Every structure is written in structure tokens, then in C-alpha cells.
Amino acid sequence: MKERIRCLLLTFIIALVFCVNVSATEQTGAQLYYVTDEAGLLSENENMMLEKMAETVSQKYDIGVYIVTVEDYRDFHSEGVYKATYTIYHEYTMGEGPDRDGIMLLLSMDDRDWAMFCYGSRCEYAFNSYGQQKLEKVFLDNFGENDWYGGFEDYIKECSVYLEKAASGKPVRASLFFPILIVIGLSLLAAAVIVAVIWQKMENVSKKATANAYVSAGLQLTEQTDHFTHKTTSSRKIERSSSGGGSSHSESGGGGSGRSGKF
Amino acid sequence: MATQITNYQCPACTGPLHFVGESGRLECDYCGSSFDVAEIEALYAEKETKAAEAAQKQEETEAAQKSAEAEKQKAAAGGSDWDTSGLNEDWGADAADMKAYSCPSCGAELLCDATTAATSCPYCGNPSVLPGQFAGVLKPDFVLPFKLSKEDAIKALKKHYRKKPLLPSTFSKSNHLEEVKGVYVPFWMYDGAASGSVQFHATTVHKYTSGDYEITETSHYDVRRAGSIGFEKIPVDASSKMPDDYMDSIEPYDYTDLKPFSTAYLPGFLADKYDVSVENSRERADKRCAGSLVSALESTVSNYTTCNETSRDICLKRGKVHYALLPVWILNTKWEGKDFLFAMNGQTGKLVGNLPVSTKRVVGLFAAIAASLSAIGVTALLLLAH
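The joint structure predicted for all components is written out below.
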């Protein structure tokens, strides 16, 4: 009897999990779970917890938050990890709502590549290019230390924060204070230069230092020597944009925008 | 004190003649006749000879008459006379700077600057030439006749005001054109050559990246150039009345129109004789010769990122000096109690002169440009952010 009850309970749990997934799939049309760990970076428990978190966030804001790990992104698109990410997104009809809004984070383990793809106007409103750049800082340092679960957890939590802010009409945006100050400063400088040039035209009287107009016999060059004396070398470290444990750059294509790099 | 003065008169109607730049002939305003410069020169050479003979005879007759009249007046004088003892005949230091002439047309006595060589009578308006000013060693070698008229100078001045956003709005409307005068300005013209060498420090810069570093390699060179260059007729104004910078700024002149000097080109214009000597003007010509040689040598230093002169050794070979009168229109205007001077090359029409700047307009223009650029920049930034 006990065994029968256990069997029924197990069937019920499996059916429940299946129902949840089926309902999610039915609701969104997505053919993948929120967390698809093809590279096997997560334990079953970690996978379940992340799946639950991503599902909650996705359904609350009606924008899918996805995680995909693969061994080699080239299995999906040979021309780059970003292209592979949006290929997966579109091939598996990922996204929430009628416009299939969603954000997908892909890790490709062979060469430690990563990419993030943001699709749909509501999603791009929540994650603009500045937001995407800021978001990657949250997880790249974890991935740099092979802390997969920590990185994914931070990613989902941060996505939740972004989506909440977007829902309240105050999406994450770069502060424009300093850029505006720089623009105003440059405008003042340009105006000063233009006015100085115009001012100079008000005064056209000056003593002549040459008599080129009265040259009767052109220059007769009698000596022309160029001696190399020495060489001086200086070096400057190139400042590259980096985020925690990896590097990245912005991308566009696939009907959306995103970022990619190494971790 | 009265000295010889010539009014070129029309042989047809005896009206005053003046030189017209456009036609290059002497024209009469009254009967419209025009005469070639050479024709009038020949006529006046003949007249002057006859006039000299007649003047000598008249002087003798006048002296005899004067002594007879003085005797008569002495005898006829009754009662008191005007006291002229306070009138002073001593001109002091001014005597050296002034000369008096009698206008042959109306007889008025003209007081002129000692350097004035051509003027017009303020009473009858007739153009007068003072040939004595050009006598002997002072006679110019060349004259470059005026090509442009007074109207052209006024037109050029109005054009000069255009497209000047910093010019006070009232300046072009309410400034008063005080005087427009065509002046034959005396110039020394220096022939010569400059030779020498110039040393430069030049560099080339090569940038490349190596790993995380940008490397800048600067190669240094000692560059030496030597050569010579010849000059012909570098003009340096020989009149202390003319500002040097204005005279430099209206250059260059086209010497193909240069004519052997004749006073027949002067009627209708003012003319001065030199009052700055060849020696005192030479320094300006020397500087310009050296400057041109250095500039020409520097132009041969190419394919370098930077090139700076470190030393020079220039030797000048001074040649012949010519004396010429070159045509300049001088325009004086007055605005808000201040005088503004403009000068125009009477041959080419190049006009120079500093204009006043309106502080309000400077601030306004600066603010307008800065505001427009800021608005465009901030809008672009906001669009980019969204």
C-alpha cells in the first residue's frame, strides 16, 4: 500500500512538473526551458532552483529570462557566439507574450565564449545598451572564477531588478549629467574658436615679413642635407574596456541587440 | 616765400586737367577734351621755358615800379596808420616743415607741408603740381598711375563692411566718411638677392601597437638647406605720414603698368615726396628678403611630421634702389568720435583697415553658437540614450 501511495505521489509530482513546463511552453511557445544546461555546468538541484527563479521573473513581467549553456556555439552558427545565441532564440521560438520578448544568456564552454541577446521592444526598453553593459558586470566575474550557479543566480536577480524598474517606468539608464556637461563644454569651446576666427577677419592690417611677390629669380638650392641623429620611443598602455573576469563588446543583429565576449 | 607751381590746363578751354586712371589720359571736366600724357608734357616743357624768360623781365619792371610807388606813398601819407609791429615774420621751427605757393589759377596763397608734391587749391579746387619738389636728386624714377577712381574706393569700403557679423550695426550706417583722397605715396624699391643657409630640427613619428601598449617612435633629423633667391623692386614706403603696416597690407602691386615718372600723372591727386631716407627704410626690405629666403628653404623640407628652424646664416646682396610713386586711396571715417583709417591699392583695389568690434555682438554670437551646438549635442545624446 505504502509503495502504491509512493508511486502515485511520484507520478503526481512528475505530472505536476510536466504540467508546469507544458503550461510554460504552451503559454509562450518556447521550445526550451528557461534554463537549458547542455554543457552540464549545474547540478540537478541548482538547475531546478534557477529554472524556478527564471520562470517566476519571466511570468511576472511577461519577458522571458533564459540561460543556455552549450559545449560549442559553432554547432548552431559558425560565425560567432552572438549569432549562435539569436539563432537558438529564434529557432526554438523563445520569448514571452505576442512579441516574444526575452533576454537570453549563452555560455559556450569550449573557448569560454559568452553572449547575451535581447529581443523585443519591451525587453530592449528594460535592457538598453547601457543596461546590458552594466548587467554583464554582475555575472562575468563569477564565470571568470567558474562559479556557474552564482553567476546565473546573479543574472536572474539582476534581470528581475531591471524588469521591475522598467515596469515602474524608470528603466536603468546611464546618468546623462557628465556627458551633457562635456557636450556643453565642447560647444562653448567650438563657439569661442568660431568667434575668434570671425574676430580675426575684422583686422586685416599687418606688417609683411616676406617679399614673395617680388621674387625675380626663384630659389637656387645649393645644399640639401638630412641627417638622422637619434630615435626616441615612448609607450602608452592601451585602456581596454573590460568587465570583471572577462571582456566584451556590443553586438546587433537577429532583430535585437546584445553583447558578447570571453569569460 | 612763394614758389613755382603748375596747373595743368586744357589747351582747348583752359579748364583744369586731371589724370583719369581708367583712360590713362588727362581729361578736362569743362569741355570734355582728353590728352595724352606725352602731349601735355611736351606742351608744358615749351610753356615753362617761355614763362621763365617772361618772369625775369617782369621782375625787373616790377622792382622799378615798386621803388617809384614807395616814394609817392611817403609823400601822400597823412594821419595815423595801422600798427603792424606785432605781426611776426619769424616762422620758427615750423618754417622747415612748411612751404607757401601761389595758385596760378586764382592767386590764393597755399600753405603746404614741405613734402607735398601735388595738391588741389582749397579756394578754386584746381589740381596743382609742385614740380620743384621732384627736382634734381628727388625726382622719382617711376610712377604707377591710378587705375581706380574715388567711386571705386567708396564702393570697396562698403563691400569691406559686408559679411562682418561683429561689426556694430550703426557703424556702416552712421559712420561719417570724413575724407577720401588719392595719394601718390613715395616708395623706395629695392633690388637685391639673399643667400645663406638655414638649419632645421625635423621629426618623423611612427606609431604602432605591441600587445597592450601603443608605441610611439620619434626619429630626429638635422636638416640643412642652403640657397639663394633674387628680388626685384621690393616696395618700402618712404613717407613717415603713411602707416607702414597699411602700406604693406595693400601690396602687391603689378609693376607691368609702371611708367617713367612724369608730373602729368599727378593732377587730380595728392602726392608727397619722400621724408624717410633709403638707409632708414633698408632694414624693412632686408627683413623681408631674409624672411622670403627662409620661407622658400623651409618649403623644400618635406615628408616630416614637424620642422622647426634652429639657426640661420643669411647674407644679403643689396642692389639698385629705385624711387617711385605708387597709387593709394586713403579713406578716413569717423564713428562715435573715433577715427578709422582705410587704405586701398589704387591699382588693384585691395582695401585694408581695421574695423571696430561690438562687444554685444561678440557675446550674442558666442551665445547663439554655443546654445545651438549645445542643443544639437544634448538632443543627440538624449536620442542616443533612449
